[in-house]
Write a structure and sequence with these properties.
The chain has a three-stranded parallel β-sheet. Strands 4-5 form a two-stranded parallel sheet. Helix 1 links the parallel strand 1 and strand 2. It folds into two domains: 209 residues, Rossmann fold (3-Layer(aba) Sandwich); 90 residues, Tyrosyl-Transfer RNA Synthetase (Orthogonal Bundle). It is built from 13 helices and five strands. It is globular and about 70 Å long. By secondary structure, the protein is mainly alpha-helical. It binds adenosine-5'-tetraphosphate. The site of adenosine-5'-tetraphosphate (AQP) has 22 residues, from helix 1.
Length: 333
């Protein structure tokens, strides 16, 4: 039976990039009929690698739990939990740091990007973030990890650490595979379509947030940066704005880029943007409705997260104990 692990940071309101690049895949995997163990967590320890306001973070954690369920994750099938409530994640990250070289962390593209944006100084945790991520995955002996394209480099480090640990001590970890969608793996900013859409983007209209009102979604798409040649075709290098809208449209309609082009090639940009807006609203509206139904049901959300933490702790503690034995720390052989 396959084990699949992934998570999203509660570092702000989720974007359609987080949904199409990650959560939609979690839901598809959950529902694909194959037998599997699926762990999806709220990556709050990752979120604090950059400054967060405590009350806002706590709210985002609860919001993300509700959003996972609203997007279609079924807590009776998928183990949903909060990363910091399974302390083995932090412990495993430390143990893996002992076999990680500083140089390989300093080379990470996301570290280089994110460190530029820090005004209060760069935390050590921002540098060691990929080791925590490796721990998140290796703790559950995951076979594969559904992520957006931006996480590919971190996944490569996870694989290297698993191989390194196995050869230094003895066979312990499975070497996980990344699971990256062909389309939707990298949704771009609506305002700077050569840059990834991010929940922490300071330009509000650059991102479509999952909980944006329909009229806001339509307005943001209508004002998306495109080009002036008036031709709808997929060419990310020369036409990044239109290509991004085609990607969003095809993902929302569950069709290929070629099928999308066939449908819209004779439209002008205004007409095309209107169709994209409708497609996004059609996908997000049911999620928003479900979210509103459960976000204030604290009892239900607590039950889901307690049950998830209990199960995740069981697996994670077993693995951390095994790793400690292999390394030789503690008394157990
Ligand atoms: N624009 C995107 N397109 C496709 N996939 C994306 N993901 C993020 N942005 C896009 C995928 O969503 C999952 C969760 O991401 P995360 O929150 O753990 O971290 P992130 O990649 O740093 O996401 P953001 O939105 O850019 O957050 P901030 O602004 O806080 O840094 C991952 O699988 C990611 O690939």
């Amino acid at each position: 039976m396959k084990t699949i692990v992934s998570g999203v940071q509660p570092s702000g309101t989720l974007t359609i990039g987080n949904y199409l690049g990650a959560i939609k895949n979690f839901v598809d995997l959950q529902n694909n009929g194959e037998e599997k163990e699926l762990f999806v967590f709220i990556a709050d320890l990752h979120a604090i690698t950059v400054p967060q306001e405590p009350a806002k973070l706590r709210n985002s954690i609860k919001g993300l739990a509700a959003l996972y369920i609203a997007c279609g994750l079924d807590p009776n099938v998928t183990t949903l939990f909060i990363q910091s409530e399974v302390t083995a994640h932090a412990e495993m990250a430390y143990l893996l740091q002992t076999i990680t070289y500083i140089g390989e962390l300093e080379r990470m593209t996301q570290f280089k990007d994110k460190k530029q944006k820090q005004v209060e100084g760069v935390s050590t945790a921002l540098l060691t973030y990929p080791v925590l991520m490796a721990g998140d995955i290796l703790l559950y002996n995951a076979d594969c990890v559904p992520v957006g394209a931006d996480q590919k480099q971190h996944l490569e480090l996870t694989r290297n650490l698993a191989i390194r640990f196995n050869s230094k001590y003895s066979d312990t970890f499975k070497v996980p595979e990344p699971l990256i969608q062909k389309t939707g793996a990298k949704i771009m900013s609506l305002q700077e379509p050569t840059k990834k859409m991010s929940k922490s983007d300071v330009i509000d209209k650059a991102s479509i947030f999952i909980l944006d009102e329909p009229n806001i979604i339509r307005k943001k798409i209508a004002s998306a940066v495109t080009d002036c040649d008036g031709v709808i075709k997929y060419d990310p290098e020369n036409k990044p704005g239109i290509s991004n809208l085609l990607t969003i449209y095809s993902c929302c309609k569950n069709i290929s880029i070629d099928e999308a082009i066939n449908e819209v090639k004779d439209l002008n940009y205004g007409e095309f943007k209107k169709l994209v807006g409708d497609a996004v609203v059609d996908v997000l509206l049911p999620i928003q409705t479900k979210y509103k139904e459960i976000i204030n049901d604290n009892k239900y959300l607590d039950e889901v997260l307690d049950k998830g933490a209990e199960k995740a702790n069981y697996f994670a503690n077993k693995m951390v104990a095994k790793v400690k034995r292999k390394i030789g720390v503690g008394r157990k052989k």
